[in-house]
From TrEMBL, chain A:
It comes from the Bacteria. InterPro entries: PaaB, PaaB_sf. The lineage of its organism: Bacteria, Bacillati, Actinomycetota, Actinomycetes, Kitasatosporales. This is 1,2-phenylacetyl-CoA epoxidase subunit B. Pfam families: PaaB (PF06243).
From TrEMBL, chain B:
One of its GO terms (cellular component) is cytosol. One of its GO terms (biological process) is phenylacetate catabolic process. It comes from Streptomyces colonosanans. This is Phenylacetate-CoA oxygenase subunit PaaI. The lineage of its organism: Bacteria, Bacillati, Actinomycetota, Actinomycetes, Kitasatosporales. Signal peptide: none annotated.
Amino acid sequence: MTTEDWPLWEVFVRSRRGLSHTHAGSLHAPDAEMALRNARDLYTRRGEGVSIWVVPSAAITASSPDEKDPFFEPAADKPYRHPTFYEIPEGVKHL
Amino acid sequence: MTVTVRTGAVLALGDDALVLSHRLGEWAGHAPVLEEEVALANIALDLLGQARVLLSLAGDEDELAYLREERAFRNLQLVEQPNGDFAHTIARQLYFSTYQRLLYAQLAAGDSEFTGLAAKAVKEVAYHQDHAEQWTLRLGDGTDLSHERMRRACEALWRFTGEMFQPVEGVDVDWAGMKATWLETVGDVLRRATLEVPEGPQSGAWTAGAGRQGLHTESFGRMLAEMQHLHRSHPGASW
């Protein structure tokens, strides 16, 4: 058997309570349960996480590089959309 | 080699962890898939960590690991069995990790010099058991080929399981109760994996198992030679 027989899974790890899951990488596994365990071994063995999600890569709809301009270009010249004009109160993290 | 009760107990637990760790390490570069290679290496490293703590209780860990002769090792014959195919490795993991989890759970609840280590290691071992269980279910209840290989592996290693429940002097746990729970747990996994609990006694005249007395099976000498040759050729070598 080779990994070619096994579907690809995307792994999302939440590093601390209160933060959101972030993409950590991908792996091969025969099913979701094994994907979760493989993810634990590959991405959280140095204490990186408190929660893991695995998602079949095939279930992800991604934007295409060809659509880059219509998708992202209009945002480039609108600095007022950035929250940089506010004073950030002391003690607020992760903003 | 004559050893005290305490040293004998320490070596029994420590050598189990050390020898199984080395066997699992042999999969590095050979596992069926990369993800599984990392999983087996992780388990091997957990066991190596346990072995280091345990052997340090009995003396110098390097000396004990690398300079003892075969007959001075007190590990179960089960853990020294060659990796075989992947199903063999998984069957060995299922049998041993179920045993080790029960043993450590009892030691963690007790009050001995093993309590601290056992309390920490029991969580590691719970994961080892889960890993073995997941694979047993998938191989047993998988294809005809995987079912047949898993069945063969479970039967081949069955005769080494009785030795696990021979009481080790200096390790104060309920051995008989542990055996009953082990049989129940392993039996449940095998049945869910559409496998049968192997027939035949676990202990008796024909069964294997004198590792605790220092008697080992043929392949163990070769394993030790590989494990020890670097240290013996270059005494004191370090990274």
